[in-house]
Write a structure and sequence with these properties.
Layout: H1 3-6, H2 22-26, E1 39-40, E2 43-44, H3 57-69, H4 73-82, H5 90-106, H6 119-135, H7 143-146, H8 152-168
Antiparallel strand pairs: 1-2
Helix pairs in contact: 3-4, 3-5, 5-6, 6-8
């Protein structure tokens, strides 16, 4: 899978802070909810003020709900990789991780057959990250959150999801 396999994941599925990592994230298909937050001295970097404000957890939830209700797995993957909540608001971090856990589980009903062996690892990682986000009080810098996405099982599964998406989504 090339460079994607070498990228270390953390969630937000993880939540990304654009800051100094913005240009690297543009090339990484996991630069949305499932990307490693950029940190400076242990504190997440602030989002670029020239960018539009981050979406609310409610907007992210509605995008997942629309994708699932319309049976559009490509839109599920796109939402995982595009929307990033305000990482400076701990309540938004906690809520977004729970939305992510609930939505990946709900998306199982529209799962393409090619991903039946991979998707459970994504669902489990997001479930555990939601638990850790709650435990950490929404502190995006808590390493236990991102640790759920830095496993070979998750990395292999998510790389397969991205490969499927590349082949099947426009």
């Amino acid at each position: 899978m090339g460079p994607r396999a070498r990228v270390v994941l953390a969630v937000v599925l993880v939540l990304t802070a654009a800051g100094s990592a913005c240009s690297a994230q543009q090339d990484d298909p996991r630069a949305g909810l499932l990307a490693v937050p950029s940190t400076t001295s242990g504190v997440a970097t602030t989002l670029d003020p020239s960018l539009p404000p981050p979406p609310s957890p409610d907007k992210i939830k509605s995008e997942f709900a629309l994708a699932i209700s319309s049976k559009n797995f490509c839109a599920v993957v796109q939402t995982l990789d595009s929307e990033v909540p305000d990482v400076g608001v701990r309540a938004a971090v906690t809520e977004t991780y729970q939305i992510l856990a609930d939505s990946t589980k709900s998306a199982t009903v529209i799962l393409p057959p090619e991903l039946t062996d991979d998707w459970p690892a994504v669902v489990e990682a997001t479930r555990l990250a939601a638990i850790e986000a709650t435990r950490a009080g929404g502190d995006i810098n808590d390493p236990s959150i991102g640790a759920q996405f830095v496993t070979s099982k998750f990395d292999d599964a998510y790389n397969n999801v991205i490969a499927w998406s590349t082949d099947h989504c426009s």
